[in-house]
Amino acid sequence: MKTIGIIITKAPLESNLVTKFLNLARKITNNRNKVEIFLISDGVWLAKKNQDNPSSKILNELIKKSSKIFASKEHLTAAGIDDNELIKNITLSEKPYLDIVTLTMETWDKVITI
Questions:
Q1: What span, in angstroms and rounded, lies between the C-alpha atoms of 54 and 5?
Q2: The CATH number, out of the four listed (3.40.1260.10, 1.10.940.10, 3.30.1300.10, 3.10.620.30), of the domain defined by the range 1-31+40-88
Q3: How far apart are CA 24 and CA 30, in angstroms?
Q4: Average pLDDT of 87-107?
Q5: pTM, full prediction
Q6: Facing residues of 39 across strands?
Q7: What is the pLDDT of residues 74-95, one digit of tens each?
Q8: How many CB atoms are located within 10 Å of the residue 2 CB?
């Protein structure tokens, strides 16, 4: 089993690429591999709960399938998103760049960035 890391830097409504890559993540998990997603920059908008868009629906589905989702605390704050506005089971990263390097070097077998 491989662990694939996906770093999302785009807002869910900025580009249809976010939905395409989340669909790819769904396929990866259906093939019994593991997906972990790191939301940074405008990608943190995916972490906000109660959104009605395809990307958010897929992200919630991945969480239910036990995919681990990380979000940059610094970028959430910059976007004005409070902790109580987040989807359940989002792991906040206080040091996102250090965490991304650590995950890339020690945990993820492959990395995709959008």
A1: 20
A2: 3.40.1260.10
A3: 10
A4: 95
A5: 0.93
A6: 8, 71
A7: 999 999 999 999 999 999 999 9
A8: 12
Instruction: Give the span between the Cα atoms of 31 and 56, in whole angstroms.
Output: 21
The pLDDT tens digits for 11-54 are: 888 778 899 999 999 998 887 899 999 999 999 999 999 988 88
Q: Where are the domains of the chain?
A: 1-31+40-88
The three-state secondary structure class of 94 is coil
Q: What distance in Å separates the CA atoms of residue 99 and residue 53, rounded to the nearest whole number?
A: 28
C-alpha–C-alpha distance, residues 75 and 52, integer Å: 21
Q: List phi, psi (to 5°) of 56.
A: -65, -40
Write the burial class of residue 109 (CB in 10 Å: 0-12 exposed, 13-18 middle, 19+ buried).
exposed
